[in-house]
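Intended use. Records like the one below are meant for learning the mapping from a protein sequence to its folded structure. Do not use them to infer anything beyond what is encoded.
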Amino acid sequence: MSALSLRLPESIHRHIKEVARQEGVSINQFISSAVSEKISALLTEDYLKIRAKRAKKDALRKILAKVPSRKPLLNDEL
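Structure written out for the chain above:
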């Protein structure tokens, strides 16, 4: 594991301390989790962009054509 020195505005630091306390985790654990979630989101976005470039519209239309036409369930149309 490595150490990282990080400068944050006091207001952000206060928010991190409060949220970490509410979640019952250390500040280090909270920040590590937050950074991991952000990295995961960015990697997922990149992955989906790559997959979208490979997509074939005709193949999608064929799949969607197989979806049965039904009325929405009660309250599902809202």
